[in-house]
Amino acid sequence: MIVVICGSPGAGKTTVATRVADRLEARGEPVRLVHSDDFSRRTYERLFERVADGPDDVTWLVDGTFYRREWQERFRTLGDVRFVLVTASLETCLERNRRREDAIDEQGVHVVFREFDEPAADLEVDTDELSATEAVERVLEALDRWRSA
């Protein structure tokens, strides 16, 4: 299964993805976590290649904005793909971005927030409403449901 964790910069994607990966590993489940930040160019092409060429017997967690529909649609061709949309207000995203060591230009946050093509999400978690722990629990519960369906 491939779980794409997407949303605007500063929404909490990386926090959720990393904590979900840690929890799956603690349960002894094979998991691979890949972040869009791992690539400096051709980001979504390289994310796609990494997952497409990787093992099938693991849960893939893919962390990126995926704000363009074409990237979302390409990933859906990989088979059992679920989208988790992580949301937060623009103000929250900007504030969290300011606190990051690797902050992106604020204009970039505005652009992605404004131009975001929301996917047909299998799960949405609002990190203005939920703590990181609660968001992770929701993702894990959904993952268990998806696997048993």
Task: Please provide a written account of the structure.
The protein is α/β, with parallel strands linked by helices and 149 residues long. It has one domain (2-148): Rossmann fold (3-Layer(aba) Sandwich), CATH 3.40.50. The protein is built from six helices and five strands; from the N terminus they run E-H-E-H-E-H-E-H-H-E-H. A five-stranded parallel β-sheet has the order 2-3-1-4-5, sandwiched between helices. The two termini are 12 Å apart. It comes from Natronococcus amylolyticus DSM 10524. This is Adenylylsulfate kinase.
Task: Identify the notable features of this structure and list them briefly.
single chain, alpha/beta, Rossmann fold, 5 strands, 46% helix
Quick summary:
InterPro entries: P-loop_NTPase. Helix 1 packs across helix 6 and helix 4 (90-99) runs antiparallel to helix 5. The chain has a single domain (2-148), classed as Rossmann fold, CATH 3.40.50.300.
Number of DSSP-assigned strands = 5
- The fourth-level CATH homologous superfamily is P-loop containing nucleotide triphosphate hydrolases
Name of the CATH class: Alpha Beta
What integer value in Å does the Rg equal? 14 Å
Shape: globular
CATH fold-level assignment: Rossmann fold
List the helices and strands and how they pair.
Elements: E1 2-6, H1 13-26, E2 31-35, H2 43-52, E3 59-63, H3 69-76, E4 81-87, H4 90-99, H5 106-115, E5 123-126, H6 132-148
Parallel strand pairs: 1-3, 1-4, 2-3, 4-5
